[in-house]
C-alpha cells in the first residue's frame, strides 16, 4: 500500500493544481453548447426537443466514457490518459465548425463529450496523492473545476459577439490543446503507479476493477450523484434558454445569470470537501438534499393568479418570481448542490481505495447521464405541460427520492449496528470505516500557539501571524468597500432616472450600517466557534451576493424600491466582517504588538471605504466590462453612466480574496470556544463602557463615511464634492493604521481622552461653517474640519482597541483568581477578542444613526446642525467616561500608562 505521508507537499500541490486547471478547461469545453447552442438552434431552426438533444449529447459521451477512462487511468496513470483525452477533445471541438447538417453536429458533439470524462481521470489521479483524512478537501478543490462552466458563460458570449460561434469553438479547442501539452510535460506519474511499476506488479484486471460494482451501495451513491452533478449540468445547460424565454433577457444577461449559478455550484465544492472531512459526508448530504428540496419547491412553483371569494367580493392576487430573486435562489441552490457533489466523492477513495477508477467512473457516469437525460426531459415535459417551471418540479421529485432512499438506508444500518460495533463507527452510516478526523490532521490548524513566548514568536510565530494579517487586510478592505458602496451609488440614483425621495435615499445610505452592525453582533462570536480561516473564507465569499445584486438592480429605473432595501441590507455582510476579522487577528499577536496589528488590520481595512469612494466614481463613467457588463444608463441631464460597475468591479477581487483566505490562513486550536464561554463578557462592566467609547470613535468614522458624500452634496450643491469625499475615509483609515504604535507606547486611555477633546472642537468647526455656508470659503472650512474629524476618529479607533487587552489583563485576574498561567492567558485573550468584536458590532450602528440623524434633522429643522449638536454632546460624555474610569489618578489604566509614558520620554 502507498505510504502517502512520505509524499512531499510540493508534489501534492503540483498534482492538485495541474489537475484542477485541466479539469476547468475541460469543463469549459464540455458546456460550450450552453452558449453557442442558442446560435446553432436559430441557424438550423431546431425545435425544443432537437435543441435539448444537441445540448445534451456531449454530456452523454462524457458520462459513458467516465467508466472506461477511470479503468484506463487505473492501468496507465493519469498523466498519459488526461493529456490524450484533452488532445482528442480539442480536435473534436475544432471539427465542430466543419459541420453542415444536424446529424454532423450531433457526431461532433459526441466527440466534444470526451471533455466530461476528465473528471474521473482527475479523481483517480488526485486521490492517490492524499491520505483518507485529506481526500475530501483535495477532491473538493479539484471538483471546483466545474467553474469552467462559468468561464464559458462569462467569456463565450463576448467571443461569440465578436467572432461568431465558430470563433468560440476555435479558441476553446486551441486552449485545451495547449493545456494537454502542458499537463503531459509538467505533471508527474502518481506514486502508486510508480511503485507498482518498480515492483513489477501487474495492473488490476477488468474483473478485479469492476467487482465492487455489484454492491448496492455503489448504485445508491450513483443516484445521489445523478441529482447533485447531473442536475447541476442540466441546469447550467438549460438556464440560458429558460431565462431568454421566461424573462425575455438577452443572451448576455442570461449567460451572466447562468454563470452565477455555475459559480456557486463550482467554487463551493472545495468547501463541501472540507465540511465532509470535518463533519462527515452523511451530515453534508442531509444539508445538501434538504435545502435543495426547499429551494427547488420554490423554483418549481409556477406564476399563478388567485381569486378568493370574500364577503366584500373577490380578492385577486398573483404569485410570480421575478428575475433577480430567481437568480439569487439559483445561486443558493448551486451552493448546496456543490456541497453534495463533494460529499459523494468523499466516500469513494475511502470505501474503495483500490478501485477508485472503476467505482468513481460508474458514479461519475451515472451523474453525467443525469446531465444528458435531464435536459431532454426538461424539453419533453415543457412540450407536454407548457409550464417552464416543470423542469424544477422534476428536480424536486428527484431530490425527494434521493433524500428518502438515503435516510432509509441510514436507519437500516443504524438498526444493524449495536453495542461495541456501534461504538467503533466514527459516524453512521456513510463514514463507516473512515478514520476519525482530528485536529492533528488539519494542516491549517495551529496546535501550539504561544505568542508571549519570545523564542516561539521570533522563530515561528511572527511569520505565521504576519501571513494571516496580510491575507486578512485585503479581505477586510473589500468588505468595507461593499458595505459602504451605497454612499456613492445612492448619490447618483436620481441622475439616472430613479425617483426616490431624499428620505428614501438617506434610508438606503443608512440601512447597510444597520444590518452591518447587527451582523457584527453574531459575527463577534463566530471565530472561536468555526475558526478564523473558515469564517474569513465564508464571510468574504458572501460579499458576492450584494456586489452582483447591485450590478443588476441599478440597470433598470423600474427596479422596485423594495429590491434596493434588500440589497442595502445585504451590503451589511461587509460590515459584519470587521468584528470577526478583528477577533481573529487579536488571537495571533502578543500584547506588546497587538495594538499595532489591530490598527493595521482595521486601518487598512477601513481604507476600503476610501478606495470605494475613489474607484466607483471612475468605473461608472466607462464600459469597464464591455458588453458583459450591460448597457449604459442615460442621465437625466445628458451623458451616460454604467452604475452596474459599482457592484461588478468587486467580484473578481472577492473571488481571489476568498481563495487566498482558504489556502493561506490558519486556525488556532486554543482559540476555539463556545458561545456560552464567550458570553461571560456580557457581565463585564468594561465591555459596555468600551462599547460607548468605540461608538464615539469608530461609530463616528463609519457614520461620517456613509453620510458625508450625501451631506456635502446637499449642503454645497454648487461644488463637485463627490470627487473629494474619498479623502475623509482615506485620512481616517491611514491615521488608524499609522498611529497604533502611539497607543502601544503612551497608553490607549490617554490617547483616547485627548482624541475626544479634539473631536469636540472639530464638530464646533463643522457647525460654524455650515452656519455661513453661503459665504466664500465656507466649503473649504467645512471640508477641512471634517478632515480633522476623520483624522481624530482614526487615532481613536486604534487607541480604544489598544485599551481593551490592557483592561482585561487587569480585570480577569481580579475577577477569576483561580486561573493561573496558561489558563489565565487564554481567558484574557478570549475575553479581549470577544469584547473587541462585540464593541465593533455596537459601534457599527453609527453607520445607520449618523446618516439617519442627518436626514431627520434636515426634515425637522431644515438643516443638519441639530444632529451635529447631538454628536458633540455624545463626545463630551465619552471624554468624561474615559477620564473617570481609566486615565484619572486611581483609574484602571493610570499607573500602567504613566509608566509607559515615562519609558517613552526616557527613550
TrEMBL record:
<feature type="transmembrane region" description="Helical">
    <location>
        <begin position="51"/>
        <end position="69"/>
    </location>
</feature>
<dbReference type="GO" id="GO:0015707">
    <property type="term" value="P:nitrite transport"/>
</dbReference>
<keyword id="KW-1133">Transmembrane helix</keyword>
<keyword id="KW-1003">Cell membrane</keyword>
<feature type="transmembrane region" description="Helical">
    <location>
        <begin position="535"/>
        <end position="555"/>
    </location>
</feature>
<feature type="transmembrane region" description="Helical">
    <location>
        <begin position="251"/>
        <end position="272"/>
    </location>
</feature>
<dbReference type="GO" id="GO:0015112">
    <property type="term" value="F:nitrate transmembrane transporter activity"/>
</dbReference>
<feature type="transmembrane region" description="Helical">
    <location>
        <begin position="469"/>
        <end position="493"/>
    </location>
</feature>
<feature type="transmembrane region" description="Helical">
    <location>
        <begin position="719"/>
        <end position="739"/>
    </location>
</feature>
<feature type="transmembrane region" description="Helical">
    <location>
        <begin position="138"/>
        <end position="163"/>
    </location>
</feature>
<dbReference type="Pfam" id="PF07690">
    <property type="entry name" value="MFS_1"/>
</dbReference>
<feature type="transmembrane region" description="Helical">
    <location>
        <begin position="284"/>
        <end position="303"/>
    </location>
</feature>
<feature type="transmembrane region" description="Helical">
    <location>
        <begin position="686"/>
        <end position="707"/>
    </location>
</feature>
<feature type="transmembrane region" description="Helical">
    <location>
        <begin position="751"/>
        <end position="772"/>
    </location>
</feature>
<feature type="transmembrane region" description="Helical">
    <location>
        <begin position="218"/>
        <end position="239"/>
    </location>
</feature>
<dbReference type="InterPro" id="IPR044772">
    <property type="entry name" value="NO3_transporter"/>
</dbReference>
<keyword id="KW-0812">Transmembrane</keyword>
<feature type="transmembrane region" description="Helical">
    <location>
        <begin position="323"/>
        <end position="344"/>
    </location>
</feature>
<feature type="transmembrane region" description="Helical">
    <location>
        <begin position="76"/>
        <end position="96"/>
    </location>
</feature>
<feature type="transmembrane region" description="Helical">
    <location>
        <begin position="778"/>
        <end position="798"/>
    </location>
</feature>
<feature type="transmembrane region" description="Helical">
    <location>
        <begin position="599"/>
        <end position="627"/>
    </location>
</feature>
<dbReference type="GO" id="GO:0005886">
    <property type="term" value="C:plasma membrane"/>
</dbReference>
<feature type="transmembrane region" description="Helical">
    <location>
        <begin position="505"/>
        <end position="523"/>
    </location>
</feature>
<protein>
    <submittedName>
        <fullName>MFS transporter</fullName>
    </submittedName>
</protein>
<dbReference type="GO" id="GO:0015291">
    <property type="term" value="F:secondary active transmembrane transporter activity"/>
</dbReference>
<dbReference type="InterPro" id="IPR020846">
    <property type="entry name" value="MFS_dom"/>
</dbReference>
<dbReference type="InterPro" id="IPR036259">
    <property type="entry name" value="MFS_trans_sf"/>
</dbReference>
<feature type="transmembrane region" description="Helical">
    <location>
        <begin position="356"/>
        <end position="381"/>
    </location>
</feature>
<feature type="transmembrane region" description="Helical">
    <location>
        <begin position="561"/>
        <end position="587"/>
    </location>
</feature>
<keyword id="KW-0997">Cell inner membrane</keyword>
<feature type="transmembrane region" description="Helical">
    <location>
        <begin position="387"/>
        <end position="408"/>
    </location>
</feature>
<feature type="transmembrane region" description="Helical">
    <location>
        <begin position="833"/>
        <end position="854"/>
    </location>
</feature>
<feature type="domain" description="Major facilitator superfamily (MFS) profile">
    <location>
        <begin position="14"/>
        <end position="414"/>
    </location>
</feature>
<feature type="transmembrane region" description="Helical">
    <location>
        <begin position="102"/>
        <end position="126"/>
    </location>
</feature>
<dbReference type="GO" id="GO:0042128">
    <property type="term" value="P:nitrate assimilation"/>
</dbReference>
<dbReference type="InterPro" id="IPR011701">
    <property type="entry name" value="MFS"/>
</dbReference>
<comment type="similarity">
    <text>Belongs to the major facilitator superfamily. Nitrate/nitrite porter (TC 2.A.1.8) family.</text>
</comment>
<keyword id="KW-0472">Membrane</keyword>
<feature type="transmembrane region" description="Helical">
    <location>
        <begin position="647"/>
        <end position="665"/>
    </location>
</feature>
<feature type="transmembrane region" description="Helical">
    <location>
        <begin position="21"/>
        <end position="39"/>
    </location>
</feature>
<keyword id="KW-0534">Nitrate assimilation</keyword>
<feature type="transmembrane region" description="Helical">
    <location>
        <begin position="169"/>
        <end position="187"/>
    </location>
</feature>
Amino acid at each position: 500500500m502507498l505510504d502517502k505521508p512520505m509524499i512531499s507537499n510540493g508534489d501534492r500541490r503540483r498534482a492538485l493544481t495541474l489537475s484542477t486547471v485541466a479539469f476547468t478547461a475541460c469543463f469549459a469545453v464540455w458546456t460550450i453548447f450552453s452558449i453557442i447552442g442558442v446560435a446553432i438552434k436559430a441557424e438550423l431552426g431546431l425545435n425544443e426537443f432537437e435543441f435539448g438533444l444537441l445540448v445534451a449529447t456531449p454530456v452523454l459521451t462524457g458520462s459513458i466514457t467516465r467508466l472506461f477512462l477511470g479503468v484506463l487511468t487505473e492501468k496507465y496513470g493519469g498523466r498519459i490518459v488526461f493529456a490524450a483525452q484533452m488532445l482528442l477533445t480539442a480536435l473534436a471541438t475544432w471539427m465542430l465548425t466543419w459541420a453542415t447538417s444536424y446529424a454532423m453536429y450531433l457526431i461532433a458533439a459526441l466527440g466534444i463529450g470526451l471533455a466530461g470524462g476528465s473528471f474521473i481521470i482527475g479523481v483517480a489521479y488526485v486521490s492517490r496523492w492524499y491520505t483518507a483524512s485529506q481526500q475530501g478537501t483535495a477532491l473538493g478543490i479539484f471538483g471546483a473545476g466545474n467553474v469552467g462552466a462559468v468561464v464559458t458563460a462569462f467569456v463565450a458570449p463576448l467571443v461569440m459577439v465578436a467572432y461568431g460561434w465558430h470563433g468560440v469553438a476555435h479558441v476553446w479547442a486551441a486552449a485545451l490543446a495547449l493545456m494537454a501539452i502542458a499537463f503531459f510535460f509538467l505533471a508527474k506519474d502518481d506514486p502508486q503507479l510508480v511503485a507498482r511499476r518498480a515492483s513489477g506488479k501487474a495492473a488490476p484486471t477488468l474483473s478485479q476493477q469492476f467487482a465492487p460494482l455489484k454492491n448496492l451501495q455503489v448504485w445508491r451513491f450513483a443516484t445521489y450523484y445523478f441529482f447533485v452533478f447531473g442536475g447541476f449540468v442540466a441546469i447550467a445547460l438549460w438556464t440560458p434558454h429558460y431565462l431568454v424565454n421566461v424573462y425575455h433577457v438577452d443572451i448576455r444577461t442570461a449567460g451572466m445569470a447562468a454563470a452565477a449559478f455555475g459559480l456557486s455550484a463550482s467554487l463551493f465544492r472545495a468547501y463541501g470537501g472540507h465540511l465532509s472531512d470535518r463533519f462527515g459526508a452523511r451530515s453534508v448530504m442531509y444539508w445538501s438534499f434538504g435545502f435543495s428540496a426547499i429551494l427547488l419547491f420554490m423554483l418549481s412553483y409556477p406564476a399563478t393568479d388567485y381569486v378568493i371569494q370574500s364577503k366584500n367580493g373577490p380578492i385577486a392576487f398573483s404569485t410570480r418570481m421575478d428575475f433577480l430573486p430567481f437568480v439569487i435562489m439559483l445561486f443558493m441552490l448551486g451552493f448546496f448542490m456543490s456541497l453534495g457533489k463533494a460529499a459523494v466523492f468523499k466516500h469513494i477513495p475511502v470505501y474503495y481505495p483500490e478501485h477508485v477508477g472503476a467505482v468513481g467512473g460508474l458514479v461519475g457516469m451515472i451523474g453525467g447521464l443525469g446531465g444528458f437525460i435531464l435536459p431532454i426531459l426538461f424539453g419533453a415535459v415543457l412540450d407536454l405541460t407548457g409550464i417552464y417551471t416543470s423542469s424544477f418540479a422534476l428536480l424536486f421529485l428527484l431530490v425527494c427520492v434521493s433524500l428518502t432512499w438515503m435516510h432509509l438506508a441510514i436507519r437500516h444500518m443504524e438498526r444493524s449496528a449495536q453495542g461495541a460495533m456501534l461504538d467503533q463507527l466514527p459516524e453512521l452510516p456513510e463514514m463507516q470505516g473512515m478514520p476519525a478526523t482530528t485536529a492533528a490532521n488539519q494542516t491549517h490548524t495551529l496546535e501550539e500557539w504561544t505568542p508571549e513566548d519570545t523564542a516561539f514568536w521570533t522563530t515561528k510565530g511572527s511569520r505565521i501571524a504576519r501571513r494571516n494579517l496580510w491575507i486578512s487586510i485585503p479581505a477586510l478592505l473589500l468588505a468595507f468597500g461593499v458595505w459602504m458602496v451605497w454612499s456613492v451609488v445612492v448619490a447618483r440614483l436620481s441622475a439616472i432616472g430613479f425617483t426616490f425621495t431624499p428620505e428614501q435615499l438617506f434610508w438606503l445610505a443608512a440601512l447597510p450600517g444597520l444590518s452591518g452592525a447587527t451582523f457584527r453582533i453574531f459575527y463577534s462570536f463566530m471565530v472561536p466557534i468555526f475558526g478564523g480561516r473558515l469564517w474569513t473564507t465564508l464571510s468574504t465569499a458572501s460579499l458576492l451576493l450584494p456586489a452582483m445584486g447591485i450590478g443588476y438592480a441599478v440597470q433598470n429605473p423600474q427596479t422596485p424600491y423594495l429590491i434596493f432595501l434588500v440589497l442595502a441590507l445585504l451590503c451589511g455582510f461587509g460590515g459584519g466582517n470587521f468584528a470577526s476579522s478583528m477577533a481573529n487577528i487579536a488571537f495571533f499577536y502578543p500584547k506588546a504588538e497587538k495594538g499595532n496589528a489591530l490598527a493595521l488590520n482595521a486601518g487598512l481595512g477601513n481604507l476600503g471605504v476610501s478606495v470605494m469612494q475613489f474607484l466607483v466614481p471612475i468605473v461608472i463613467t466607462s464600459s469597464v466590462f464591455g458588453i458583459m457588463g450591460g448597457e449604459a444608463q442615460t442621465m437625466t441631464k445628458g451623458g451616460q453612466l454604467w452604475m452596474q460597475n459599482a457592484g461588478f468591479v468587486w467580484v473578481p477581487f472577492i473571488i481571489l480574496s476568498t481563495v487566498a483566505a482558504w489556502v493561506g490562513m490558519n486556525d488556532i486550536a486554543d482559540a476555539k470556544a463556545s458561545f456560552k464561554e464567550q458570553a461571560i463578557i456580557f457581565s463585564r462592566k468594561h465591555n459596555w463602557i468600551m462599547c460607548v467609547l468605540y461608538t464615539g470613535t469608530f461609530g463616528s468614522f463609519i457614520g461620517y463615511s456613509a453620510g458625508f458624500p450625501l451631506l456635502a452634496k446637499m449642503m454645497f450643491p454648487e461644488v463637485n464634492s463627490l470627487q473629494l469625499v474619498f479623502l475623509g475615509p482615506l485620512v481616517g483609515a491611514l491615521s488608524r493604521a499609522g498611529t497604533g504604535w502611539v497607543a502601544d507606547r503612551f497608553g490607549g486611555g490617554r490617547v483616547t481622552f485627548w482624541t475626544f477633546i479634539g473631536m469636540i472642537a472639530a464638530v464646533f468647526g463643522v457647525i460654524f461653517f455650515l452656519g455661513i455656508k453661503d459665504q466664500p470659503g465656507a466649503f473649504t472650512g467645512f471640508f477641512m474640519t471634517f478632515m480633522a474629524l476623520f483624522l481624530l476618529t482614526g487615532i481613536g479607533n486604534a487607541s480604544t482597541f489598544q485599551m481593551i487587552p490592557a483592561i482585561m489583563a487587569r480585570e480577569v485576574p481580579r475577577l477569576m483568581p483561580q486561573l493561573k498561567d496558561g489558563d489565565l492567558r487564554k481567558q484574557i485573550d478570549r475575553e479581549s477578542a470577544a469584547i473587541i468584536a462585540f464593541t465593533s458590532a455596537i459601534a457599527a450602528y453609527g453607520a445607520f444613526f449618523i446618516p439617519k440623524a442627518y436626514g431627520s434633522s434636515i426634515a425637522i429643522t431644515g438643516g443638519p446642525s441639530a444632529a451635529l449638536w447631538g454628536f458633540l454632546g455624545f463626545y463630551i460624555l465619552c471624554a468624561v467616561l474615559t477620564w473617570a474610569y481609566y486615565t484619572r489618578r486611581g483609574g484602571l489604566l493610570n499607573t500602567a500608562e504613566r509608566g509607559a509614558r515615562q519609558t517613552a520620554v526616557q527613550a
